[in-house]
Amino acid sequence: MAEYKAYFRCIDGCKGEYPLDEIIYRCPSCGSLLEVHHDIDRLSKKSGKEWRDLFSTRSGTTGWPYGSGVWRHKEWINPGIHDDNIVSMFEGNSNLFWAKRFGKMIGMDDLWVKTCGNTHTGSFKDLGMTVLVSQVNEMIANGKPIKAVACASTGDTSAALAAYCAYAGIPSIVFLPSNKISIAQLVQPMSNGSIVLSLDTDFDGCMRIVQEITKDNSIYLANSMNSLRIEGQKTISAEIVQQFDWDVPDVIVIPGGNLGNVSALASGFRMMLDLGVITKKPRIVLAQAEHANPLYTAYKNGYDTFKPMTPKKTLASAIQIGDPVSVKKAIRALQEFDGIVEQASEEELADASALADRTGMYTCPHTGVALAALLKLRERGDIKPTDRTVVISTAHGLKFSEFKVGYHEGTIQGVNSRFANKPVTLPPDADKVREVLEREFASRKNDGLRK
Q1: CA terminus-to-terminus distance, the chain
Q2: What's the rounded Cα separation, in Å, for the pair 181 and 157?
Q3: Which candidate, 438, 404, 436, places its Cα nearest to that of 421?
Q4: What are 408-444's pLDDT values in tens digits?
Q5: Residue 165: phi, psi to the nearest 5?
Q6: CB atoms within 10 A of CB 440
Q7: Is this prediction's pTM over 0.90?
Q8: Are the CB atoms for 168 and 385 separated by under 8 Å?
């Protein structure tokens, strides 16, 4: 196999290349974020068909490390890392769910949900964390004095970091905003042995602290400003296309907070285009919660200005971010992929999530944001009935049981819970049970859901 090369480079084009084992997060010249670049000329020596065939032969295998949905694309991710230092739990390979009933409700026959929450820690963050922790593992093996890996998080990043570091035997530190994440998300890093620091601030405040404590390079930064994370997350694009027998969907809808996910999605499609694996681009839709919508505001003014905001509390807690670190990369990605930014209110995201659940899904509130945006775009005609559309589901609904319970009990402030489904309490009387069942059958027959 040819020797491929990957390195860090400034997103704004400043001169300089930095090896992936160098502890560096921003350009020394201008302060912009770095991104991983690959030797496309050398990668192009293999045809698009050869890449497709290679990845297809690796799918579903147990051959280390290629059974992973991330590491089967090793040459596109981190080609120089030694296989023995890779920290993988065979992440990725998540189901592409045909949302048949939900699609019919909104006049679409080709609607799909990429269930990225069906992975080890229950979110798509595993895809990026396997790459970052693997690189740290190799650096430690080669003598770098790294004491721990740290992140600021609204829940899912901390869970992924804690699990992968625990698997590798590397200490981890997570900074979480007090009382702003679900109990299920809080307990994950606790269970995996992280040093858990709960700060009386929001995510942006945690982000400022983690950048400060990682300045001396003895503690490695694991947030998405570190573009090694993006390399793993970009494999969502390749996996979706492979699941469609290498056909590209028309539209992809993805929720966004810190905005590394949308830049990763675009990066994956861009690489496949450059290497001749695909021949067309999808349109990318970025969905934000109305309470944390700085990119939506910028989009509405043509990206002329971007202003960070202080986010309000939102049910979609993982994207409750007002000063996203990857905003510049996200805007470029959306401009390149004919992007749309849409927002969802608290009631819209909660109802969309509940409606999807009634058709067989079990969605997190962030997926609810994406589904609510989809409903708006279908109503406006921005997404056509014939568009093959994929919604990225970023986490498993089981991580947000409080949200689910609150919705169905009708206790979420400001949310009317149109699709609430409360249990019916009855005495153990067969006649009473029959009476209630008949009423429920009649009600559900006419509620528009039995299609």
Answers
A1: 52
A2: 12
A3: 404
A4: 999 999 999 999 999 999 999 999 999 999 998 988 7
A5: -70, -40
A6: 12
A7: yes
A8: no
